[in-house]
Amino acid sequence: MLTTTATATEMQNNFGHYLKMVQEGQQIIITRNGREVARVVPREHTESYLTDSLTGILREELSWEDARKERISAKYETHA
Question: How many C-beta atoms lie closer than 10 Å to residue 6's C-beta?
């Protein structure tokens, strides 16, 4: 997938142009003050992008449900 970088101002002023690029399969990285603040990804690549970004976060021996329970337990566990 091709990636293009645009500032927030460029994106605002040329939204139609960048939307067409996304429709054609490109990813747009939006920056503000030189820092990445967002990505616009074609819909058909969204699931793959999210899955790829989670790779390695969960230990293989945990199911999604077990990981959820562990995360909730850690978040709401009281320390007396």
Answer: 19
CATH superfamily of 3-76: YefM-like domain (3.40.1620.10)
Which tops the pLDDT comparison, 67 or 27?
A: 27
Average pLDDT over the chain, rounded to an integer: 81
Tell me if 32 sits within 8 A of 8, measured CB to CB: yes
Backbone angles phi and psi of 51, in degrees to 5: -60, -45
Q: Could you report the per-residue pLDDT of 3-33, keeping only the tens digit for each? A: 999 999 999 999 999 999 999 999 999 999 9
DSSP assignment string, the chain: --EEEEEHHHHHHTHHHHHHHHHTT-EEEEEETTEEEEEE--HHHHHHHHHHHHTTTS-TT--HHHHHHHHHHHHH----
